[in-house]
Amino acid sequence: MTKVLKAALTAVVVAAMLAVASPASAASTARVTNGNASGPGSFAQAVDDANHSRSIRRIVFDAGLTVEVDGSVVFDGPQRLTIDGNGSTVSGAGLAPAETWDGGLFVSAGDSRSITVKDITFEDSPNNGIAVFVPADQTRTVDVSLRDVTVDGAQFHGVLVDAQFFDGFNTDDVPHPNCVDPHPFDSAASVRVSLHDVDVTGAGSLDPAYDISIADGCPQDFDGVRVDEGGDGSLTALVRGGSFDGNLADGMELDETGDGTVSAWVLGSSFSGNGETVPVPFEDGFAEDLDDGFDIDEAGPGDLLAMVIGATVNGNFDEGLDFDEAGPGRVAATVIATTADGNEDEGMKADEEDEGSLLFNLYYSSSINSASQDGLQVEELGDGDVDVVVFKSTVEGNDSDGVKADEVDAGDLDVTVLFSQLSNNGGNATDTEEADEGTGSVSVKYTTALGYAGDEWKNDVDTEILVGNTVD
């Protein structure tokens, strides 16, 4: 082979390799270079460029910018998108109260399967801080990842991920005139949310100029973080560090209404001081339970799985931790090294209302000083077993019972309390009941229960084992 031919073949091979390594559609970056509301170098322009070019998959801010937007910045492209704020701030200060409900300082409303936002602050939004609206026809998993993000002072939710239609009384989106869902879609997509060192405070800080009375009795249900998944699909949340404190309703709410499982892992996060919602009339009752520290609701067939480690859930208007499973499926919750102090209702609560078992493990934790309810309340209202373990934990100073566990329908109930403190509760140290077909057992060993005028233990079960306890 001649040198000329070898050189030609080499050139062809190199060109082919470069074409594979750097195709015309290779990812590119749009830069934000100034704080203008629009025009070249603005955040709005960078997002608009991404809307018109699928090759743009990253938006990068120059360091430390302050951007005052003049409305929602909406991404509607199909590609994965990463926004790197580089320590910048996006502000809605000066904007009038919201005239639309499906907005936010940054909104994703397209077919993108992955939205990543990092190292940025969103403040003073007239609606949501960050909103991701999942289309009805999306069937794949949608990933929303926030890292080193702060959202402060949003008038509606701090962070909203919405893939759910709620018919009628609308607590799953922002309250809307006549209780109409502004994003009426049940998506078959699964939703996966990752929050790493995210701080969300002051959500629901409504401008006094906005008259909420036009909502015709809808509650002001504005959470720090709200994730709604409807239709087929599951909801997964990983929360590491960060704080979700001082919001109008829940610090964080995960809501799954169709077929699918909710899985949540929380490590070292704070959900405190949430809930200023005043219950409003609705039909023959009141819209309550809007303001927990960390709230998980699973309403269709599917399980509710939660692991909470090293969290703080103090001073919330309702429960500290509230886990509710209303359809066929089980609840399996483990809480480790977590503090619930001074919540208005239960410090920690778990309910299972249909067929399915309920498991709640409380290790090395405290649930204390609940103002009107129990320290730990576990209820199985359908067919299914209940298994509660309290180990080296403190459940004391609560207005009602320390540990309350009920199995109302067919199924067994087993409660074990070991090496714990259950003193000075307003009701009983333990209060358990097995009301239907099934066996019940309570085992309390090496546990302290002081400060009771009457009996420490109130257990309507088949078997009671009390060993080595300190009582008065």
Keywords:
18-stranded parallel beta sheet, Pectate Lyase C-like, mainly beta, 13-stranded parallel beta sheet, 472 residues
Describe the structure.
There is one protein chain. This protein is mainly beta. It has one domain: Pectate Lyase C-like, CATH 2.160.20. It is 6% helix and 39% strand. The protein has two helices and 37 strands. The protein has an 18-stranded parallel beta sheet that branches. The protein is elongated and about 75 Å long. It starts with a helix and ends with a strand. Mean pLDDT is 87; it is low at 12-25, 167-175 and 278-287.
Global mean pLDDT? 87
Q: What spatial form do the alpha-carbon principal axes imply?
A: elongated
What would you call the structural class? Answer: mainly beta
Beta-strand content bin:
35-45%
How many DSSP helices?
2
- The CATH class turns out to be Mainly Beta
Which ranges are low-confidence, i.e. pLDDT below 50, for 5 or more consecutive residues? 12-25, 167-175, 278-287
How many strand elements? Answer: 37
Query: What is the radius of gyration?
Result: 26 Å
Number of domains: 1
CATH architecture: 3 Solenoid
CATH domain topology = Pectate Lyase C-like
Helix content: under 10%
Distance, first to last CA: 100 Å
The largest sheet, given as strand count, sense and whether it forms a barrel, is: 18 strands, parallel
